[in-house]
Structures are given as structure tokens and as C-alpha cells.
Amino acid sequence: MGIAEHFVMLAVLVASASAFYLPGVNPYDYEVDEEVKLKVNSMNSLKTHLAYNFYDLPYCKPEGGVKQDAESLGEYLTGNRIENSAYEIQMRKREICKVLCRKMYAENEINLFRDKIKLGYYNNWIIDNLPAATEVDNVVRQTYQTLYNRGFNVGQAVTDPATNTILKMYLNNHVKLNISYHIPDPEDDSRARIVGLVIDPFSIDHKYSGVWKNNIRLDTCDYNAPADPLERHGLKLDITEPTAKEVIWTYDVIWSESEVRWATRWDVYLNVNSNDDVHIFSIVNALLIILFLTGMVGMIMLRTLHRDINRYNRIPTEEERDQDREETGWKLVHADVFRPPHTMPMLLCVLVGTGVQLFVCMGFTLVFAAIGFLSPANRGSLMIAMLLLFVLMGSIAGYHSARTFKMFKGKQWQRCTIATATLFPGTVFAVFLFLDICEWIEGSVTAVPISGIFALMMLWMGISIPLTFVGAFVGYRKETIEFPVNTSNIPRPIPEQPWYMGAAFSAMVGGVLPFGAVFVELFFILTSIWLDQYYYVFGFLFVVFVILVITCAEITIVLCYFQLCSEDYRWWWRSFLTSGASGLYVFLYSAYYFFTTLAIENFLASMMFFMYMFLVSFAFTILTGTVGFMSCLWFNKQIYGSIKVD
Q1: Under 8 Å between Cβ of 585 and 620
Q2: SS3 assignment for 6-74
Q3: Which of 302, 379, 415, 438 is most buried by its number of CB atoms within 10 A?
Q4: In angstroms, rounded to a whole number, what is the distance separating the alpha carbons of residues 7 and 550?
Q5: Domains in the chain: boundaries
Q6: pLDDT digits (tens, 9 = 90+) for 130-175
Q7: What's the pLDDT tens digit per position in 406-417?
């Protein structure tokens, strides 16, 4: 079995790890007629990406008042606001058209519902830590496939396809809760676990006879059967005109036994993508292409370098000395190749230190996620894990920035350390704070409260910055990195370079291949973030990350070798920008994704998209640029340590 086949097998094994489910919560066995709490989360829209509290709309509230669940910092950052509800549900007790409440709405309250329906808002409910879903029939390869979308719509808007204007607007005031349960012990059917929650929303203009009273039977309900989407239930609750209206809120509770086990109940959410075959094929195809390219590059480099090193180390004859007097090549710049960069050396050290920090943070996060520790059942766990890992890895950033700065013969290591601790985190925090203020002005629940902002600042200033100084202190006290050749006092003149050896062209060419290794997975990541879907194929993502690192290293080494052969020894910044240019392609692709896939209609949401994607692209540039820098440093030390220098 060849190298490619071994790597494909590794990809399959790692990808299979993504199915291993460690939710972080224990299953709960409900007894018959035991209370099952239905909780509500914030409502979202794919058109605005501004989340609002469920009770910002005048829904029926529980008698004891609205109570919010205790939330972690990760839940605050991801916009989760979980609260109790007025729905009364008992385990395995069937309910048909049960009245939740009856409310008289004024014109302004009806307008609140109309605004949310117009913007496509949907509610997110939770039972036993399992989010509600809506079944969607989708045609894939001329066969019907049932998909599950998160939440259910606040209402229905009927639009004119020609003009895209809204003709009718209906409020969903009735829901059918389809709850699946699994009996873990066949010998004891009195206890069961909840394994599924699918909601069918309906708009029904309920009617009743006589005077309203408790336990009244509605004329628009069939108490022998739950609501059926294929049947008509009288008139829909029309709120096209903003007039005062009476609304009766009702619900069905339908229980059904399922063979789905508790450990796999999230599968319907984690496998939401209808193009799984395309996804797997694209990843494997990209893997094989990258392996083929890197194999070819490796063979070319090894053969060329082997020939060059043998030629340089061979003892020439008298005749060959005369012929080789005008010899050209990468050996001629040996006295200048390790000369510190003449442009912004401190900035390069700061970026390299931050890049190593991001590399370690991403590596640990992907490993934990692929194993299954960062389950979506623990809301906000992925966010808080990335945040804490980045903060704790501040010492690594300080260490490597100081080591690189000392290698460049820098003296002001304190300034370098301060810049390392503040440049990237400060940029992220400034953008986040600006957008958070904008969301707070809009009244969105995704706006992190003052306590959350204070916690973030304490993590940054109280933990990350001190750790960065500790790492820098240790790194600067270490011995300076030794080079295999000495650097001359007088810089060697650089010959005029052809246009295709320029820094800009090399960066544009060098950034294509790393971007090509990740753009398929990037599509799925953008879809999960901006189309509100779960992303959980971290096994594939880990494989893509490994491919990305190998690709960045090899393409940067190849272009650096060509640059040195042209007697241009200014490779420090070039090595960083060559692979780091892939971040520009990531940003351009995200802009293409925005205009071709998303349906965002809100200026703030558009601004949020591009500002957050700028941060992602910036981080991607630092990460890939650091890989290229470190690879070229290792490569140059190896090749110049292999030749004899007079």
C-alpha cells in the first residue's frame, strides 16, 4: 500500500472519530407522567443575524415569571439565552389542542410579530437539552430526503414571485410537538429517555362558541387527532393588516417510541448537510491532489538540492576553479542569507509569535473536538475552549517572539513582548467591542453584557499578557539561535530580479495552493456559521489542517529556493507572505460566498460578516505565514549547514 493509500486510511480513521459522542451530560430517565420542561432560546434570522429574546415578542409567559438559566461565557458569546416557558408537558402523556393562553393584542403588538415574520425569524426551543427541529423534504438525486432545520418559523409570509412583495402574512399560533423516546431497559418500560423533538407549526384562526372559559373546546380543533399539515384547519390566522386581534395559542404533544439511542440522538443535527457524498469526495479528492503535488515537489527539491550540494562540496580541479570562478547560485549568498530583515523586524517577530500561539491553539482544539469532547450539547463549549486555549498559550507567543527577536539581534524585547500581547488580541477585541455596541443599540441578545466584557478583559489583561511576558522572559534568556554560516558586515548587492520573482507575484502564486487545500472545507464552515447549522466533522477538518500545514511548508520552501538561486537573500518577510497570502484568498472567497449564497438584508449584519471574516482571514494569514517562515528557517539552516564554506 502506497503513501497516498495510507494517508487516505488515516483520513477515514480520523474522520470516524468525529462520530464519537461525548456530550458532557448524563442521560436522564423520565418516569411516566413526570414533568418535562420545555425551554425557549433566543430567536434568530438568516436575513439579519441579530438574535432577540423569545419574550421580546408578546408570547404567553409562565405563571411564576420568566426565569433565565445560568449561562457560561461561551453561551453569552454565542448568543444563547435559555429561559423557561408556559408549556406543560408530561412524559408520554398525549395532548390534543391544549390551550396555552388567550391574549388580546393591540395594533403595536401585532406589528411586532409582523416585523419578525417579514425578516424570517424562527424560534429555538429545547427539551432535555435537545433542540427542536423542523422536517424539510429535499430532493437529492431525484429522491426525497428528510432534512432537519433548527427551530421553527414565527409565522408564514406569502410573497409574489414576480415582485417579491409580501401578499399575506400568517402567525403560527399552534405547534405540534413530536417527541420521540427510547426505553433503555426492555424489561422496565416505566422509564424512558427523550431522543427526538420535531415541531410542526400551524397558523389557525381558532373559533369557539359562547363565552370564553377555562377548558373550553374550540370549534377549530379535532380532539380525536392532532393537527396534520396535509389537512386544512379552517382559516389561517391572518395578520397582514396591523389591526388589534384576539389570538388563542394551542399545542399538541405526540409521543412515539423510537429505536434511536440517547447517545446518537444528535445525529439528525450533525448530519444536516444533504451533500455528504460530495463533502467526503471533495475532501478525499483534495487530499490526493495535495499529496500528489507535494510528492512531486519533494522529489524535485531532493534531486536538485542533492546535485547542488554535491557540486558545491566537491573539491574542484585547477581547470574547474577557473571555469567556476563566475559561478552563480544559492551558495553565493551564504554570507547574507541569515542577515536580519531590514524592514520591520519587530513586527515580523510579533506575527511569528502570535502564529505559533494560533497553531498550538488550533491543534489542541481540533484534537479535542475530533475526539468528541466539544459536543454541541454543551452550548458554547467550542467557543470557550478556543478562548481559554488562546489565553493560556500566551506564554508560547511570548517565548517564540522573543527568541526570534533575539535571533534578529533586537534589544528592546519589552516593546516586542507588549506588541505580541496586544496586536492580534487587541485587534480582535476592538472589532468585537465595536460590533457588540452596535448589537446592543439594536437590542440584540447577542450583545455581550458588561459582565461578559469585563470577564474577557480580565482573561486578556490578567492572564494572557502576564503569561506572554513570562514566555518572553524565558525565551530571551535562552541562547541565541545559531546559524551554520557567518554573516558578512557588508551586504551583497542583489541583482535585478525578473518580474515573476517579485514579492507580490510570489505571494499571489504561493497563496493559491494552501487556499486550494481548504476552500472545500471552508464552504462547509461558512455554511454552518452563517446559515445556522451545526458543524461537527472535526475529523475531516483535522486532516485538512494537516494538509494545509504541509502545503504551506512545501510551497514556501520551493519559492524560497528559487529566490535564493536568483541571489536574492531577502527571504524573511517573503517566506511569511508567500503562504500567508492565502488569507487574502480566504477573504475574497468569503465575499463571493456572501453575494452568491447568503440572503442578508441588514446593513449591520453585512458589516458583521465582513468584519468577522476580516478577523478570520487575518488569523489565517498569521497562522499560514508562520508555518512558511518556520519551514524556510529550518530549510535554510539545513542546506547551508550541508555545504563547505571557505
Answers
A1: no
A2: HHHHHHHHHHHHCCCCCCCCCCCCEECCCEECEEECCEECCCCCCCECHHHCCCCCCCCCCCECCCCHH
A3: 379
A4: 13
A5: 24-265, 344-488+497-640
A6: 999 887 765 444 444 566 778 899 999 988 888 878 889 999 999 9
A7: 999 888 888 999
pLDDT tens string 363-392: 999 888 888 777 777 777 788 888 999 999
Residue 329, sorted as left (phi over 0), alpha (psi -120 to 50) or beta, turns out to be left
Closest CA to 495 of 328, 295, 301, 305: 328
Q: Does position 621 have pLDDT exceeding 90, yes or no?
A: yes
**Poorest-pLDDT segment among 23-37, 96-110, 236-250, 259-273:** 259-273
* Burial (Cβ within 10 Å: 0-12, 13-18, ≥19) of residue 337: buried
Task: Record the pTM.
Answer: 0.85
Instruction: Report which residue type is found at 517.
Output: A
Q: Which cell numbers hold the place of 401?
A: 517572539
Look up residue 204 and give its three cell numbers.
389557525
Rounded Cα distance, 512 and 558, in Å: 14
Q: Coil, strand or helix: which one is 138?
A: strand
Q: Give the helix ranges, DSSP H, for 86-179.
A: 107-118
Max Cα–Cα distance, the chain, nearest Å? 118
